[in-house]
Specification:
Elements (H helix, E strand, L loop, with lengths): L3 E2 L5 E2 L8 E4 L5 E11 L8 E8 L4 E5 L5 E14 L2 E6 L3 E4 L5 E17 L16
Antiparallel strand pairs: 1-2, 3-4, 4-5, 5-10, 6-10, 7-8, 7-9, 7-10
Length: 137
C-alpha cells in the first residue's frame, strides 16, 4: 500500500512507505544509529500534533535534551532506558512514557534496539518558565 492522500486532507498509509531519515538534534547534529519517520506532520496539514516513528539501533543513545513541549511515547518493540529529569526507567514493548515539557530527557537503546511511536505538539505547549519539577506552594 502506498501512502494515500484524500480530498479532506487525510493521509493513510503504512509506516514502511515513509522514508526513514537519520535523526538530528536541535543543532542539526546527526544522532548515530537513530532513525525517524515523520508519519504525520504539519507538512501533511496536521494543525496540532506530529506522529513520529523512531527506530534506534542496539546500544545507540539519544543525548539529553529538553524543550517546551511534551512527548507521548509508546514502545512497539525492543527495550530502552529513559532518563527523565533525575530518574531512569526501563521500558519495553507495550510500555508508554510521558515526558513533560522543559524536563531534560535521554534514551538508551537496549541490546536488541527499540522502536517507538512519539507524539508531540507542533508548537510549544508551555513557556520557558514552566517547571513541572518544582514543588507546589
Amino acid at each position: 500500500m502506498t501512502v494515500e492522500r484524500g480530498p479532506c486532507g487525510e493521509k493513510v498509509g503504512r509506516a514502511s512507505d515513509v522514508e526513514a531519515k537519520e535523526a538530528t538534534l536541535g543543532s542539526g547534529e546527526k544522532v548515530p544509529g537513530v532513525y525517524i519517520r515523520w508519519l504525520i506532520s504539519s507538512g501533511d496539514g496536521a494543525p496540532t500534533f506530529a506522529m513520529r516513528l523512531f527506530t534506534v539501533e542496539p546500544g545507540a543513545h539519544i543525548p539529553g535534551h529538553k524543550h517546551p513541549w511534551e512527548h507521548e511515547i509508546y514502545v512497539l518493540r525492543g527495550s530502552m532506558r529513559v532518563r527523565i529529569g533525575q530518574r531512569e526507567y526501563s521500558v519495553s514493548s507495550g510500555s508508554f512514557v510521558y515526558v513533560p515539557p522543559n524536563v531534560e530527557h535521554e534514551y538508551f537503546a537496549g541490546e536488541d534496539g527499540v522502536e517507538f511511536l512519539c507524539i508531540i505538539p507542533l508548537r510549544p505547549s508551555v513557556d520557558d518558565s514552566y517547571n513541572p519539577c518544582k514543588p507546589s506552594a
